[in-house]
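Structure record:
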Amino acid sequence: MFGLTPLNRNQLQKRDGHDFIDFYNMLDDFFNDSPFGFRAPETGVFKMDVKDQGNAYLVEAEMPGIKKEEIKLDYQNDYLIIKVEKNEEINEEKESYLHKERRSSSMQRSVYLKDIDAANVDAKLEDGVLKISLPKSEPAASKLQIEIK
């Protein structure tokens, strides 16, 4: 006879083609129990800044609550790839009940950085911020004069 249709708030806020933070997203953020402690709208990724310092690039990624063992850094095909995998298990035993929770989250970002001296890349995780220094290498000659014989 009558049925319930689930309400998807994200579809409502996109009806005019613009993404914006509304009252419901503010409530979701406040009550969010994500193991990462923050929420990036629509994507679930961490915030990242890339600075060109002349002779090197500096990448800073916000990683509150993340341990260095949960982060994997790769540089391949001129891309720096930052991947975070967090697995959490909570076991709580009290007098009359048993409580178990498991969470697994994964996030990944990549940025194109060409002509990097991969042997001298340095990364540190301090106070919830991952700082990666990527020294630039001398760019390969893109123009070569060929002698005709």
